[in-house]
Design a protein that fits this description.
- The chain is of the alpha+beta class and 302 residues long.
- Helix content is 29%, strand content 14%.
- It contains 7 helices and 9 strands; from the N terminus they run H-E-E-H-H-E-H-E-H-E-H-H-E-E-E-E.
- The model is unreliable at 1-6, 8-13 and 76-80 (pLDDT under 50).
Length: 302
C-alpha cells in the first residue's frame, strides 16, 4: 500500500513537472514571437517605436477632444492667423484625431536637465511653502501618465501636456528640446503647451509623405512606408511648480502682478511673500477671458 502510494505521488509530481515545463515553454514561445520595437539614432537621441498595445491605446485616448471644436482657428479673440496651420486656414472639415504611429524619445542629456530642474523647483517649493500656499494644479492630460508608465510628483504639480508642431521643426525639437527663445505668442515669449490635443492641432502642419532626411530615416526606415497626411504631436512631461494663473494675460486671477516686465513678457513676476524672491515657474491661462475654449500652458524656461 505504501509502495503504491509512493508511485502515485511520483507520477503526480512528474505530471505536475510536465505541466510546469509546458507552461514555461509556452511563455518563452510567446515572448520570442513578440515583435521587437525598432530603435534608431537621431543625432544624440534614440527614437524607439512604441508597439505596446496598452500604451498605443492610451496615446489614442490622448487625442480625444471635442469634435465640433476641431478645424476652427485660434482661441484667442481676434482674427490674426499667425502661427495657425494651413489645414486650419483651409477650413478643412474633420471630426477626430487618429493615432497612426508613436515613438518614445530617449535622451540622457534631456533626462539630466529635467532632473536638475525638478530638484531646483523642489528647493523652491520648500521656500514658498514656508510663507504661502502651494496650490495643486490639475491638468486633464495628467491622467495619462500612469498608463504610459511615467511617475509624477504631484506636490510639484508635475503633469503631462501636449505640443503641436511642424515636421520641419520636429527634428531640432527632438534633438535639442523645446526652446522658448524661438517661440512666442499672445502670452509672451515662451514654449506653448496645452492639456487638450485639439488646441495643439491648430499648430500642426500636415506632412504628405517620406523625404530623404535624418528624421525620416529614423522614424521610417527603408522597409517602412510613410502613412501619408500625418501631423506630429509631442506628449511632454512637465513641471508646473507654482504657476501664475491668469484669465486676461495681464494680471493673475487674484489681481496680482503677472509680469516682471510687461513690455516684453519674457519673465513672470515674483511670487508674493518669497524671500529670497522666486518667480512663478510657469503660466496657466484659463478659458473665460483672453481665451475662449482651451486652457494654455506657457513655459519660459524649457
Amino acid at each position: 500500500h505504501v509502495s503504491k502510494s509512493s508511485d502515485s505521488v511520483r507520477k503526480t509530481e512528474q505530471c505536475s513537472q510536465r505541466k510546469d515545463y509546458r507552461a514555461v515553454q509556452a511563455r518563452v514561445v510567446e515572448t520570442r514571437c513578440a515583435p521587437k520595437p525598432r530603435s534608431a539614432k537621431l543625432g544624440a537621441v534614440t527614437v524607439v517605436e512604441i508597439l505596446d498595445e496598452r500604451k498605443l491605446a492610451c496615446l489614442q485616448d490622448c487625442l480625444s477632444t471635442k469634435a465640433d471644436w476641431l478645424g476652427k482657428g485660434r482661441d484667442v479673440h481676434g482674427s490674426a492667423n499667425e502661427g495657425i496651420s494651413s489645414h486650419i486656414l483651409a477650413n478643412e472639415h474633420y471630426s477626430k484625431l487618429v493615432l497612426v504611429k508613436a515613438w518614445q524619445v530617449e535622451s540622457d542629456l534631456a533626462h539630466s536637465r529635467y532632473s536638475i530642474a525638478r530638484q531646483e523647483i523642489k528647493q523652491h517649493a520648500q521656500v514658498i511653502r514656508s510663507s504661502s500656499d502651494f496650490p495643486e494644479i490639475c491638468l486633464q492630460s495628467g491622467r495619462f501618465a500612469g498608463a504610459l508608465g511615467i511617475p509624477l510628483e504631484s506636490e510639484l504639480n508635475e503633469s503631462m501636456a501636449f505640443h503641436g508642431t511642424s515636421a520641419s521643426a520636429l527634428s531640432s525639437i527632438l534633438i535639442s528640446g523645446l526652446n522658448e527663445r524661438v517661440s512666442s505668442g499672445s502670452f509672451g515669449e515662451g514654449t506653448y503647451l496645452a492639456d487638450d490635443a485639439g488646441k495643439c492641432d491648430q499648430y500642426c502642419e500636415v506632412e504628405q509623405g517620406k523625404a530623404h532626411c535624418a528624421l525620416h530615416n529614423a522614424l521610417y526606415p527603408e522597409d517602412t512606408d510613410h502613412p501619408g497626411n500625418v501631423c506630429y504631436l509631442l506628449v511632454c512631461q512637465i513641471i508646473l511648480g507654482l504657476p501664475a494663473v491668469t484669465l486676461d494675460g495681464k494680471r493673475t486671477r487674484d489681481d496680482g502682478e503677472l509680469w516682471l516686465n510687461a513690455a516684453c513678457k519674457r519673465e513672470l513676476a515674483v511670487i508674493p511673500g518669497t524671500d529670497p524672491p522666486i518667480s512663478y515657474h510657469a503660466l496657466v491661462v484659463e478659458p473665460g477671458g483672453a481665451v475662449s475654449r482651451y486652457r494654455e500652458i506657457v513655459s519660459f524656461h524649457s
